[in-house]
Amino acid sequence: MIKRELVPGYEISPVIKGGWQLSSGHSLNLQIQEDQAINDMITFIESGITTLDFGDIYTGVEELIGKTLSKLSHKSGSDARNRLQLHTKYVPNESFLSKFDSSDAIAIVNRSLSRLGVDQVDLVQLHWWRYEDRHYLAALERLFELKSAGKIANIGITNFDLTRVEEMVDAGLKPASHQIQYSMLDRRTELGMSQYCLDNEIGIICYGTVAGGFFSEKFLDAPEPTQVETRSNVKYQIIIEEFGGWDLFQELLRACKLIAENHSTDIATIASAWVLQRPAVKAVIVGARNISHLDSNLQIPQIVFTASELGSIDQILDKSAGPSGPVYDLERYSEKHRAIMHTNNN
Predict the structure, then answer these.
(1) How far from 284 is each of 29, 78, 227, 339, CA to CA, in Å?
(2) Largest CB tally within 10 Å, which of 31, 130, 173, 188?
(3) DSSP states of 269-281 as a string?
(4) Full residue range of the structural domain in which residue 214 is found
């Protein structure tokens, strides 16, 4: 898989293996089989998807990545670490934000390094639950100090709105990347964020491109589910409501299915490829629990849409009601969206 430059001298795979689905807190009823998860992750890496995204609050995942790296090193040699791009997060507890102490950033990053078994992590991405507690600049500044100390190679952010990103850049704390939710169903990124990141050379990394698995043949011409399996499903079922409801979503699935048939692939691949080709986007995160869709994941960067195909999608998106507002604003301030978040996992 041909890599993309995130910042000068640092390249990532355009398809990133996500880790949230491997967290014990993600699934509502499934247990993660550790040995199988490690073997599957190595298969992703050996297939060219060498960038791994996870987080300090994804229960058990940093340890799982560390075990994967150890096994890969035994299998492939001591240079295994250099083949990977390790992206974690720093997510201070919501209850701690008003009395934030930047020494917490040092403690959490050191803990991540210990869990991973490495001396340096390639990207740490800051998330902040409430803007009313304005210490996010202090947290970001401390991360840049850890970068200067060699513990972090690059600093990113996740789920900030445009006002806050502009504030960071103006303060001389420009992030290398911004990880945000972006899909055909959720195009809040296009309300100024995409252009700003493009103008300021901030790479966008996208999650939610397949809406927690709803972009799938499984849901094509199917009734809206009344019971779901994961927190992702709960989250994106609400996004579908914001988009315009199940009937409009079915129109979008049918359009994606026709395009998928043109390219001998599936709906999920088309949904992710569409996002990957949007302005400023450097990579999309696939949240696979296993390797069952690996072949399709590898196709994502290879899809080339025709003008007619893009037009068929646009016709449906033009009917969409939302979601509207700044990036992550609903998730931060709407109780319906916030109810599925775990904001105090550190």
Answers:
(1) 26, 28, 27, 25
(2) 188
(3) HHHHHHHHTSTTE
(4) 8-338
- CATH number of the CATH domain containing 283: 3.20.20.100
* 106 in any annotated domain: yes
**Cα-based torsion angle of the residue sequence 162, 164, 166, 167 in order, rounded to the nearest 10 degrees:** 170
Radius of gyration, alpha carbons of the chain = 19
Which distant-in-sequence residues (6+ apart) come within 8 Å of 143 by Cβ? 90, 105, 109, 124, 126, 152, 155
Q: Is residue 282 part of a domain?
A: yes
Q: What is the pLDDT of residue 329?
A: 96
The answer to whether residue 3 is domain-embedded is no
CA atoms of 41 and 16, how far apart (whole Å)? 11
Contact 71, 43 (CB under 8 A): no
Give the model confidence (pLDDT) of 83-129 as tens digits. 999 999 999 999 999 999 999 999 999 999 999 999 999 999 999 99
In a domain, 345, yes or no: no
Q: What's the total number of domains in the chain?
A: 1
pLDDT, tens digit, 9 for 90 and up, residues 205-224: 999 999 999 999 999 999 99
| pLDDT over 60 (residue 262) | yes
